[in-house]
Amino acid sequence: MFSFFEKYRKIIITGAILLLAVLALVTNGKKLNATVVESAIGFVVTPFQDLTTGIGSWVENTLSSNREKQDLLDENEKLREELAALQSDNQRLSLYETENEKLSSLLKIAQKYPQYASFGTSIIAKNAGSWYDVFTIDKGTSDGVEANMVLVAPEGLVGKVLESGATYAKGQSILDSRSSVPAMSLRTEDLGVVKGEYSLMSDGLCKMEYIDAEAEIMVGDEIVTSHLSDIYPPGLTIGKVKEVQTDTNGLTKYAIIEPAVDLKHLDSLLVLDKDSTVQTITPEETTSAEDEAAEETAVTTEEDENS
């Protein structure tokens, strides 16, 4: 029915107007009372006028309502698109912020060891399993990466480079059963060696062995790399002591270590090259160099004046 009135809307409205005009002419006059014929016509026409007026109003209201509904649908779709764009921008900014925080943290580590050459890298693959015991990074010999270079994350030591190809390298974390890192308690300076152990790797833990039986190491102590390594710089955070036990021989202790780095979720790392040192200038050396330069300038000026 709606489509019929929509199709013949103009015709219906025009007919209604003409009919009303005719009725106005017929009923127009000085007589106060309608004739029988006029009354009969009014009796027949009036309901039709009411019907056509009601239909016209209904058609107009329906069309107006449909237009408003379509406008609302269009506006809703536009708002949805804008919301999706804002959410996408927010996620992108969040990723940028997270990446910036990681890079800033890695930069702080690099600044802690300014004497060593360092550069960032990303993990592109890993061995099967939940933990990062052996993995692949996106830097190789063409970037200066070689075996035994140290891998660190913002929280501390990850491991070292096992082998290097032209454009990639294999990394080994401290969880790997082949890993062995000279270590010590930061609080007591008791020495030991942190090793990966297959039975502990499933829990993300490693083991510190060869601790002296008289050592005062205890649960909660921070474990760092010691000065007894040819590979690892001293002072890198390894983790904290979770448990301390005495070996069966009674001569040594061992400790279960919880790594400081989340070795279940790794992404960006810093490569430290302990064999490639960077010359650093201390503030005292800078001041001395400035004094020497000032003296040379003064002597040159005096010679020019004498000449």
UniProtKB/TrEMBL annotation:
Originating gene: mreC
Rod shape-determining protein MreC beta-barrel core domain ranges (all copies): 123-272
Family matches, as PANTHER family: CELL SHAPE-DETERMINING PROTEIN MREC
InterPro entries per the UniProt record, alphabetical: Cell/Rod_1, Cell/Rod_MreC_2, MreC, MreC_beta-barrel_core
Keywords attached to this entry: Cell shape, Coiled coil
UniProt keyword annotation of Coiled coil present: yes
Pfam family name, one: MreC
Identification of the protein by name: Cell shape-determining protein MreC
Disordered as annotated region, ranges: 279-307
Superkingdom, natural source: Bacteria
Function: Involved in formation and maintenance of cell shape.
Bias-annotated ranges (Acidic residues): 287-307
Family classification: Belongs to the MreC family.
Coiled coil: 62-96
